[in-house]
Amino acid sequence: MREILFRAKAINRDPRMQYRTDYKNGDWVYGLVSSDRKYHDTHFTEMTNIDGVSGIDVDRETVCEYTGLTDRNGANIFEGDIVKITDKIVDATYYARVEFGNPNAQYNWGFQLVPLCKTPFAVDILHWVDMEESGAFIEIIGNIYDNPELLEVKE
Asked: Are 32 and 48 in contact (CB under 8 A)?
């Protein structure tokens, strides 16, 4: 069974309020989404971090789920991550972003790779994780929020 974990960017909605943590606007919070509600025209999303501190305001547009997988360096892979895929067998490098979904109904993992370059590579993220013995590597190089320039299509 995979670990359930989310990340999102902290926000401080009201500068006059005292917040229970030292998170600054834009800091990543890791933990669980504890509340997502709408009040009038505003959405409020809160997280409880991995230390158990609750009521941390986060930007709901940045909430990303952990895939349960790690890259070649042991870093947790989240949806929204941008990854570099190396295939030593065909001597090629590909770039993709990690996304929740299964549009082709080819597998049931729930996470896929969306290519950022023209390539015939498999979109099944499981094809690239823990495959170093076969010459396949996946490595996180950024994410869509902190590194939007990496989303440019590469040749």
From this structure: yes
**Burial bucket for residue 128 (CB in 10 Å: 0-12, 13-18, 19+):** buried
Taking the C-alpha atoms of residue 75 and residue 86, their distance in angstroms, rounded to an integer, is 16
Is residue 107 pLDDT above 70, yes or no? no
Predicted confidence band at 18 (pLDDT cuts at 50, 70, 90)? low
Question: How big is the chain by its Cα radius of gyration, in Å?
Answer: 17
What is the pTM assigned to this prediction? 0.85
Among candidate residues 87, 71, 73, 59, the one with its CA nearest the CA of residue 146: 59
Name the nearest CA neighbour of 93 among 135, 148, 44, 36: 135
CA angle in degrees (0–180, nearest 5) for 118-111-45:
115
More confident residue, 30 or 101: 30
Distance of CA 126 to the CA centre of its chain: 15
Tell me what the mean pLDDT of segment 75-91 comes to: 91
Burial of 125 (0-12, 13-18, 19+ CB in 10 A): buried
Both tokens of residue 19? Answer: 């917040």
